[in-house]
Amino acid sequence: MSREKLVAMAERTIAHNKAGTVHLTESVTTIPASNYFDPERWQREVDMIFKRVPLLLAMTAEIKEVNTYKAIDVVGMPVLISRGADGVARAFVNMCSHRGAQLVDPGVGTARRFACPYHNWTYNQEGDLVGVFKQDDFGQLDTSCLGLTQLPIAERAGLIWVTLSPDSKLDFDAFFAGYDEMLEFCDFASMNHFGTRILAGPNWKISFDGYVDFYHLPILHKNTFGPDMSPDALFHRVGPHQRVTGPRGNWAKLEGRPTSEWPESVLTGGVWSVFPHGSIAGFEIEGHKIYQVARVFPGATADESVTYLDFISTAPKTEEFIEAANKQIAFLENVVRDEDYATGLKIQRTVKTGAKKVLHFGRNEGGAQYVHGWLDALLVTADEDLNELFRNGIDAGRITNY
What we know:
There is one protein chain. The protein has 402 residues and is of the alpha+beta class. It folds into two domains: 2-53 and 182-400, Alpha-Beta Complex (Naphthalene 1,2-dioxygenase Alpha Subunit, Chain A, domain 1); 55-156, Rieske [2Fe-2S] iron-sulphur domain (Rieske Iron-sulfur Protein, 3-layer Sandwich), CATH 2.102.10.10. It has helices at 2-19, 39-50, 135-138, 172-176, 179-183, 204-209, 217-220, 264-267, 319-351, 366-379, 386-392; strands spanning 24-25, 29-32, 55-59, 68-74, 77-83, 89-93, 107-110, 113-115, 122-124, 129-131, 150-151, 153-156, 159-162, 192-201, 234-238, 241-245, 271-274, 278-285, 288-298, 305-313, 358-361, 399-400. It has a seven-stranded antiparallel sheet, sandwiched between helices. The longest helix has 33 residues, at 319-351. It is globular, with a radius of gyration of 22 Å. The two termini are 21 Å apart. Mean pLDDT is 95; it is low at 397-402.
């Protein structure tokens, strides 16, 4: 069924290419400029979006082996993701039950046990408290109640999502809406990890708007890869997520061939946008595809964001490919930092002047319109209604040329 959806997306892309049309929304949309700097709005987004919905925090490739872990701080929450001896990935608050010390610093590593650096309380990969330093002197404890605080986690398609609320009742399947099943065809689970870059940027929405926007590609990136890019885009919506395809690429290779012979390498092309903060795009290096997995998080204030760029590929970790990959990674890092985010930081300053009360998103910018529609919907949805929202979707307006 998921492959049939990929085929349908490809057929729609080919049809638009032949007709010379693009995905257009019903009308131009305006967004209050204050949405990008108002501290109250920003705090609501942190609390009602980033602390309630599943976040793409890791890739299988980062913790592929048993007894490996990744620690990451997200909107004030220290998260520890570990893969136990049973191969299962689990997520916890990175916090000792004794006096609250952080067990491990951000990063990836290998550990059969997590020992608190403060008083050496020790936990296993399943989060159980298995050792208390000088327990006889400490006093009686019910260690069964003192394990690490678990967080909801889902590992799908070689990607790992975590919900920051321990008590969340959000249904992962309702959130994914089948998008995870389509991502399976990208084969991320078998890939190797080739590097991480961390970039500072403007308000997280200014940063993320660019990841669902082809309109700027030939203009902003005119000195890098822009001359080969089209500003036109097609948005394929799946639940709150959307895949973006363009008029160029390998789509013409599919014409005249039975759909049963259409290769997944072509069917999975384009940019995979993962709500509310992720974007996955593929690039070719020496005959291998390498993917940039970008995740944008709110920073310490409404004016800041933190972006993690991770790079994964099916290529083996040979010296030759690592060298080629590092060149591509450096190029992509420079594009994001020196073009996208340099522009975004200037936008962050201009929107705060009050000179313009709204920003405009055109009919051809349906990707950003859809993201902002979902953000607004989440801000007025109670916890108990989240599953219904994700199952039923939002009223995104009528789409023409869809």
